[in-house]
């Protein structure tokens, strides 16, 4: 099985703080739905950002789609093929309307305006927001913003999804919708989540990040019921 993403011996330290990654290793293959758990501040978001080149490790290597990635130019392809849904949707949504936000990626990939609008309609339907094209983004509810953020990355037709706390502050109904959408998608994914019920429904395996390293949770516990 060829791996989609691989991080080996990753080290990262923010200035004047203890290391958050100290030899972390992970792999993601086709069909994997990997959850990353761990305490607040353990480095889970940092790890996702390293995998797409938004941060660079002080040591270790990142291999994406069979190629080791070093420089910024190496990660251009990675960010086209890996859809990253940020923890705070306000960090991801910056256009006046939903249609403009979702169309931004397809237009930059060379789709015509007509093609991009078709993509917008398709992905909004998938996330249960059909008809939201003209809605003003900053007036959406928190749950709607999260679903639009997911639609934005789905519009790029990525091979992999990285989702940072996708159910944070969602109500029960919107959480159920997010679960249903993710379960319907073919992409491999890495999901950072503190929600054990969500993980139990969506992921196929779990790693816990603590002390700068990733390891399987205690095998005496069910894999998706970790505390972090």
| Helicity level | 25-40%
Mean pLDDT: 93
- The name of the CATH architecture is 3-Layer(aba) Sandwich
The major pleated sheet works out as: 6 strands, mixed
Q: Describe it for me?
A:
- By secondary structure, the chain is α/β, with parallel strands linked by helices.
- It has one domain: Rossmann fold (3-Layer(aba) Sandwich), CATH 3.40.50.300.
- The chain has helices at residues 44-51, 74-81, 98-108, 113-126, 142-154, 172-184, 196-202, and strands at residues 5-12, 21-28, 33-37, 59-64, 67-69, 82-85, 160-164, 188-192, 205-210, 213-215.
- The strands form two sheets. The protein has a six-stranded mixed sheet with strand order 6-7-8-3-9-10, sandwiched between helices.
- Strand 1 and strand 2 form a beta hairpin.
- Helix 4 (113-126) crosses helix 5.
- The radius of gyration is 17 Å and the shape is globular.
- Mean pLDDT is 93; it is low at 222-228.
Write the layout of secondary structure elements.
Elements: E1 5-12, E2 21-28, E3 33-37, H1 44-51, E4 59-64, E5 67-69, H2 74-81, E6 82-85, H3 98-108, H4 113-126, H5 142-154, E7 160-164, H6 172-184, E8 188-192, H7 196-202, E9 205-210, E10 213-215
Helix pairs in contact: 3-4, 3-5, 4-5
Compact summary:
By secondary structure, this protein is α/β, with parallel strands linked by helices. It has one domain (5-212): Rossmann fold (3-Layer(aba) Sandwich), CATH 3.40.50. 32% of the residues lie in helices and 23% in strands.
């Amino acid at each position: 099985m060829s791996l989609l993403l691989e991080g080996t011996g990753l080290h990262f330290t923010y200035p004047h703080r203890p290391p958050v990654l100290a030899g972390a290793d992970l792999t993601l293959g086709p069909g994997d739905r990997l959850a990353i758990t761990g305490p607040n501040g353990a480095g889970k978001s940092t790890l996702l950002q390293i995998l797409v080149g938004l941060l660079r490790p002080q040591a270790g290597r990142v291999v994406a789609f069979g190629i080791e990635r070093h420089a910024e130019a190496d990660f251009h392809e990675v960010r086209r093929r890996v859809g990253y849904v940020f923890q705070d949707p306000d960090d991801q949504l910056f256009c006046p309307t939903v249609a403009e936000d979702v169309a931004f990626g397809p237009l930059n990939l060379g789709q015509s305006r007509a093609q991009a609008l078709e993509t917008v309609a398709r992905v909004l339907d998938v996330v249960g927001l059909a008809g939201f094209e003209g809605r003003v983004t900053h007036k959406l509810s928190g749950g709607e913003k999260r679903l639009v953020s997911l639609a934005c990355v789905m519009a790029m037709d990525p091979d992999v999804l990285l989702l940072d706390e996708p159910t944070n502050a969602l109500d029960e109904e919107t959480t159920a919708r997010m679960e249903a959408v993710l379960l319907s998608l073919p992409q491999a994914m890495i999901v950072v989540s503190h929600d054990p019920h969500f993980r139990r429904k969506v992921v196929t395996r779990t790693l816990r990040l603590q002390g700068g390293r990733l390891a399987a949770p205690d095998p005496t516990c069910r894999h998706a019921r970790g505390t972090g």
